[in-house]
Amino acid sequence: MNNLSTTTLTMKRVFDVAPERVFDAWLNPEMMRKWFFTLEGTNKVAQNNPQVGGTWEIVDHRGGKDYRAIGEYLEVDPPQKLVFTFKMPQFSELEDTITVELKELSQGCEMTFTQKIYVAHEENWTESDIEKALGEYHDGSEHGWNLMFMGLKELLETGKVSYTGQ
């Protein structure tokens, strides 16, 4: 299948906690279920095996439907770097690759998040159709992660998430 294009989304966030705490929030199922593609109230499954070759899975129940996100860990180097794949099989067999890098600051830490997004295109798509789709995927992902990172920041800095949107 060669009808594939990629776009890369990069986001930076600063957290007022040690990098270890942020790293843990990506890997600890109790933390994951509060912010990672799900919220505690709608989460049905949050499980993982955080080592290279290990897998993770989240199942979120929204609007009467289950949404399942799964992936595999490619690199686990606490507390500096985490690389894993991400896919939602009910929508696509394509797998994105996500890299999370953490850098200690004099106060807290900085997280650099990179997502390599794969977009399949139809036979008859033009260059501009492809560009448009890549832009929509990029912006849609950025919007989703931005909301999640707001929840993550609140969770890490206050211990709770009050965010209730989707």
TrEMBL record:
Record-linked CDD domains: SRPBCC_CalC_Aha1-like
Pfam families reported in the protein's UniProt record: AHSA1
Residues of the Activator of Hsp90 ATPase homologue 1/2-like C-terminal domain: 17-157
N-terminal signal peptide: none
Family label: Belongs to the AHA1 family.
Record protein name field: SRPBCC domain-containing protein
Organism this protein belongs to: Psychrobacillus lasiicapitis
